[in-house]
Design brief:
Elements lengths: L3 E2 L6 H10 L4 E4 L2 E4 L5 H18 L5 E4 L3 E4 L4 E3 L3 E4 L2 H4 L5 E2 L2 E8 L4 H5 L1 H6 L7 E6 L4 E7 L5 E7 L3 E4 L4 E4 H4 L8
Parallel strand pairs: 5-8, 9-10
Antiparallel strand pairs: 1-3, 2-3, 2-6, 4-7, 5-6, 7-9, 10-11, 11-12, 13-14
Length: 190
């Protein structure tokens, strides 16, 4: 996520207005703006694979997958993030005229060396403030490894790790596939 950080407080309204005309994407954390770095080819392919699979799976279900250019707003914490893939099944997101969604059910991040610690740490902590979020998925772009964090009935986040030869499940949207399909054309699989 972090390529550069601004030095002064920026209001959410000013951030959103500037983001509409900016040639690059920025994420927003409580008044601080962070420029986003570009993605690797593997990152883009994996994100595209996940989006395409979810788009086909969710067609007609009332749930909509969004790809990298759609922000997720976290009301309780005053954050705006650009996840690699997000799914909302909430009517309020479908009918809103904003350039962001507020009620994600599933968020998928493809990890890179520069973002992995933030995606696992502060960003995940921020995403956990969303009452609508049921699953947070981290996909390693260098080796076949998917970490799916699922909120259980008690509100605790439980890790479901997947590796080569396994079937990945995103329970929040009743989706499953062989893990290798997520990596198709992105990395060599033995």
């Amino acid at each position: 996520m972090v390529a550069s950080e601004s030095d002064t407080y920026v209001s959410p309204e000013d951030y959103l207005a500037a983001e509409k005309v900016s040639p690059i994407k920025h994420e927003y954390r409580q008044g601080e703006i962070y420029a986003m770095a570009g993605a690797s080819k593997a990152h883009v392919i994996i994100s595209g694979n996940v989006f395409a699979l979810l788009r086909n799976h969710l067609r007609g279900s009332g749930c909509i997958p969004y790809m990298a250019d759609m922000k997720v707003m976290l009301d309780t914490s005053n954050f705006y993030y650009y996840p690699d893939v997000a799914v909302s099944c909430d009517e309020r997101d479908k009918n809103a005229g904003e350039d962001f969604i507020r009620y994600p059910r599933l968020i998928v991040e493809v990890l890179s060396q520069t973002t992995a610690a933030f995606d696992r740490g502060d960003k995940f902590a921020d995403y956990r403030t969303s009452e609508s979020l049921q699953e947070y998925v981290l996909i390693n772009q260098e080796r076949v490894s998917v970490e799916c964090f699922r909120r259980n009935a008690e509100g605790f986040w439980v890790l479901y790790p997947y590796t080569q030869g396994q079937e990945v499940q995103f329970a929040s949207v009743s989706f499953s596939c062989a893990i290798e399909i997520l990596y198709e054309d992105a990395i060599e699989i033995a």
